[in-house]
TrEMBL record:
Name of the protein: Enoyl-CoA hydratase/isomerase family protein
Entry's Gene Ontology BP terms: fatty acid beta-oxidation
GO molecular-function term, one example from the UniProt record: NAD+ binding
Annotated keywords: Fatty acid metabolism, Isomerase, Lipid degradation, Lipid metabolism, Lyase, Multifunctional enzyme, NAD, Oxidoreductase
Family statement: Belongs to the 3-hydroxyacyl-CoA dehydrogenase family. In the central section; belongs to the 3-hydroxyacyl-CoA dehydrogenase family.
Protein's organism: Ruania alkalisoli
Domain 3-hydroxyacyl-CoA dehydrogenase C-terminal span(s) in chain numbering: 199-277
Start and end residues of each 3-hydroxyacyl-CoA dehydrogenase NAD binding domain: 18-196
Domain of life: Bacteria
Portion of the full sequence shown: 308 to 608 of 679
Length: 301
C-alpha cells in the first residue's frame, strides 16, 4: 500500500452528518465550513456548556458577518446556523458518519477522545483527526477499529486556507481515506496526501521557520521589527503575527512533537515559552501591505 497514494473515489462513503469533538478555535471554524459547504447537520461536543455555547456563538457571529458583507443571503445564513448545534453529551455524536476531533494537541488526550467515541459510534463511522503534528497511527493504536482513523489537517483561518493535509495511518482503510478526500473536495479545499510523519509537511517547515525567527528575537531583535523584516519574502503575514493567529501554545506543542521525533533541529525556544506564559509580550501587528499596495522596495533601489 502506498501510504501517500491517490484515493479510490468509488469507495468514498456518504457523509450525511458530521460530529466534531471540541468546540474551540478550530472546531467551531470547522463546524461552519462543513455546514456551509456540505449542507449537512454538524454537532460539536465539548466538556461544558460554556465552551459548547461559545463554539455555537462563534458560528452565529461568523454567519452574521458573511450576511452583513453580502457574501451570504440572509436565508442561507439562517439555514447554516440551523445546521450547527453544540452539546456536552457524547451520545449526541452517535448518528454521525464522520467525527473529526479538534481537541487539545496532546496524544493521550486525543487517544482518550477516540476511545470514548468508539463507545457511542457505529463501527462504520470515520474518525478523523485535525492534529497539527502528532502521529495518526499512534492515535489509532489500541482502538477496536483503527482502520476508520484518518488525518484531516485543516489550517487556520479555516475559511481562508485552501489546503488540507490528508494522512493515511498504518491501518487506515480505503473507504476512510477516500472519504477524507471527498470531504475536502466538498469543502472546496485542495487535499495533499502526506505521510504520517511528525508535523506532516507544512508544520515541519513552518515550525522550523518560526524557530529561526524566534532565535532572532533571542538575539535581541524586537518582535514587531522581526515580523516586518520578513514582509518582502512575500509571506501573507509576518511570522509573529502568524504565531499569534495559530496560538503560541499550539505552536509549542508542535515544536515539542518535532523535537521529540526529529531532534535538535527544533530546539526549545525561551522566546516562545515567554509568549505562552506571558501573553503581554504580544504586540499589535501591522498587517503586511496587500498586493494592491505592494511592499515599498524603493529604499533598496
Ligand atoms: N480569521 C478568520 N478570517 C480572517 C482572519 C482570521 N484571523 N484574518 C482575515 N480573515 C479574513 C477576512 O475577514 C477577509 O474575509 P473576506 O474576504 O470575507 O472579507 C479575508 O480573510 C481576507 O482578509 P484581509 O483582506 O484582511 O487580509 P489578507 O488578504 O491579509 O488575508 C489571511 C488574511 C487569509 C489570514 C492571510 O493573512 C494569510 O493567509 N495568512 C497566513 C495564514 C496561515 O499561514 N495559516 C496557516 C497557519 S498554520 C496552521 O494553521 C497549522 C496548525 O496545525 C498549527
Amino acid at each position: 500500500k502506498n501510504p501517500v497514494g491517490a484515493p479510490d473515489p468509488d469507495v468514498a462513503r456518504p457523509v450525511r452528518r458530521i460530529g466534531i469533538a471540541g468546540a474551540g478555535l478550530m472546531a467551531s471554524q470547522l463546524a461552519l465550513l462543513f455546514a456551509r459547504r456540505m449542507q449537512v447537520p454538524v454537532v460539536m461536543r465539548d466538556l461544558d456548556d460554556v465552551r459548547a455555547d461559545r463554539g455555537l456563538q462563534f458560528v452565529a457571529d461568523e454567519v452574521q458577518k458573511l450576511v452583513t458583507k453580502g457574501r451570504l443571503a440572509a436565508a442561507e445564513g439562517n439555514r447554516i446556523r440551523s445546521l450547527v448545534t453544540s452539546t456536552t453529551e457524547l451520545a449526541d455524536l452517535s448518528g454521525a458518519d464522520l467525527v473529526i476531533e479538534a481537541v487539545f494537541e496532546e496524544l493521550e488526550v486525543k487517544r482518550h477522545v477516540f476511545a470514548e467515541l468508539e463507545t457511542v459510534l457505529s463501527p462504520e463511522t470515520i474518525l478523523a483527526t485535525n492534529t497539527s503534528a502528532l502521529s495518526v497511527s499512534a492515535m489509532a493504536a489500541g482502538l477496536q477499529h483503527p482502520e476508520r482513523v484518518v488525518g484531516l489537517h485543516f489550517f487556520n483561518p479555516v475559511a481562508q486556507m485552501p489546503l488540507v493535509e490528508v494522512v493515511r495511518a498504518a491501518h487506515t482503510d480505503d473507504g476512510a481515506y477516500a472519504t477524507a478526500f471527498a470531504v475536502t473536495a466538498a469543502c472546496r479545499k485542495s487535499a495533499v496526501a502526506v505521510a504520517d510523519a511528525p508535523g506532516f509537511v507544512v508544520n515541519r517547515l513552518l515550525v522550523r521557520l518560526l524557530g529561526e525567527v524566534l532565535g532572532s528575537l533571542e538575539d535581541g531583535t524586537d518582535i514587531a521589527t522581526a515580523d516586518r523584516a520578513l514582509w518582502p519574502l512575500g509571506l501573507p503575514m509576518g511570522p509573529f503575527q502568524l504565531l499569534q493567529l495559530v496560538g503560541p501554545a499550539v505552536a509549542g506543542h508542535v515544536l515539542d512533537t518535532l523535537r521529540e521525533n526529529l531532534g535538535s533541529r527544533y530546539p526549545t525556544s525561551p522566546g516562545l515559552q515567554a509568549m505562552i506564559t506571558d501573553g503581554a509580550r504580544f504586540v499589535e501587528f501591522e498587517s503586511r501591505p496587500s498586493a494592491a499596495s505592494p511592499v515599498d522596495t524603493s529604499i533598496a533601489r
